[in-house]
Amino acid sequence: MAITISISIFVVCMMLLMSSKFGASVSSPLCQSGYPHNAIPVHTEDIDLMQFAGNVEFLEAEFFCWGSYGYGLDVLEPGLVDGGPPPKGVTKANLDFLTRNIFKEFCNQEIGHLRAIKSRVGLFERPLLDLSTKNFAQVFDEAFGCKLEPPFDPYRDSLSYMLASYAIPYVGLVAYVGTNPNINGYITKRLLAGLLGVEAGQDAVIREYLYERASHVVFPYRHTVADFTIRISVLRNQLGMCGLKDEGLLVPPFLGAENRTTGNVLSADYESLSYKRTPAEILRILYTTSNEHIPGGFFPLGGNGRIARDFLIE
Q1: Are 257 and 272 in contact (CB under 8 A)?
Q2: Residue 243, Cα to own-chain centre: how many angstroms?
Q3: Phi, psi of 299 (to 5 degrees)
Q4: For residue 217, what are the β-bridge partners?
Q5: CB pairs under 8 A, 24+ apart, for 160-164?
Q6: Which residue of 92, 95, 295, 314 has the fewest C-beta atoms within 10 A of its own C-beta?
Q7: DSSP class of residue 288?
Q8: What is the pLDDT of residues 166-183, one digit of tens each?
Q9: Alpha helices in the chain (DSSP H)
């Protein structure tokens, strides 16, 4: 196995070297940027909207890094936290080889996202995050409408960690889709598109992993994986307070793609387009309070950036 992986890495490296040798360089006339001439790279109105995304990116980065590596941004990229408080209750998860590698990649992608936001529009200090077992247990209790026994532990095993992760990248995905119509600068449009593409990919990986196990009963409970996803999605719709914008792994036919499917490996609307949410909806969900003015949940003191802070003082 190790030999096969080493050979594959060698082949990929050789292909990259060959492409760099014979392909045109980025400075070549053949490789145009594609950006419009005489346009504004970053509109003033774009800055707050794109900085707001840093809240979700910090949440993802800390959860994915701690879960896979056993440490977070304070070790991996301390320059990004800007003196913000360390997350509460987060720890290394008991992951198998495949799952750990997936989330190590996700972790480093989130670091790249934070660095990209900081370099284009600036970034605030890391907000206080609650990634404790107690907080996740409360979220899952609310989703099921009763206390799970034993309390849900996101760090218990690979499947539990995937179910906990199900609750995060999708929130970023629909936030970026909602932000898209309000972005004007070509650099900020490129930033948003790049972030959205990877967030959508992360969500797809998590959903496919869970979809493959949809009928599995989640130990030590009597509920299936599909049931967990449906209940989390219903909870997010309730917290967001703006109708159906979130779907689990199984849906009735009238919600399936072209009303022909009940499997729902990707969540999308009746035209198979991604749902969208506003910053207020995102905060209602992440605060778990149904109120963008009342912090809690994953952000005990609220999110950072002008948009999130303005909601707190209204």
Answers
A1: yes
A2: 21
A3: -130, 80
A4: 224
A5: 160/93, 160/218, 161/67, 161/93, 161/95, 161/99, 161/103, 162/99, 162/206, 162/209, 162/210, 163/210, 163/218, 163/225, 163/228, 163/229, 163/232, 164/63, 164/136
A6: 314
A7: T
A8: 988 889 999 999 999 999
A9: 2-22, 44-69, 73-76, 97-121, 133-144, 158-165, 169-179, 186-211, 225-240, 279-287, 306-313
Q: What is the pLDDT of residues 142-171, one digit of tens each?
A: 999 999 999 999 999 999 999 999 988 889
Q: How many CB atoms lie within 10 A of CB 115?
A: 15
Closest CA to 86 of 71, 69, 102: 71
Q: What is the CA radius of gyration of the chain?
A: 20
pTM for this one?
A: 0.92
With CA atoms as reference, report the closest residue to 117 among 159, 155, 174, 172. Answer: 172
Q: Please give the biggest Cα pair distance in the chain.
A: 63
Three-state SS string across 213-232, please?
CCCCECCCCCCEHHHHHHHH
User: Which residues share a beta bridge with 250?
Assistant: 263
In the structure encoding, which two tokens stand for residue 39, read together?
A: 């346009």
- 207, amino acid identity: R
Would you state the structure tokens that stand for residue 141, as one six-digit string? 């209790």
Return the exposure string of 133-146: e unless at least 16 CB atoms fall within 10 Å of the residue's CB, then b: bebbbbbbebbbee
Tokens of 64: 């994915």
> What are residue 88's DSSP bridge partners?
130
One-letter identity of residue 231 = R
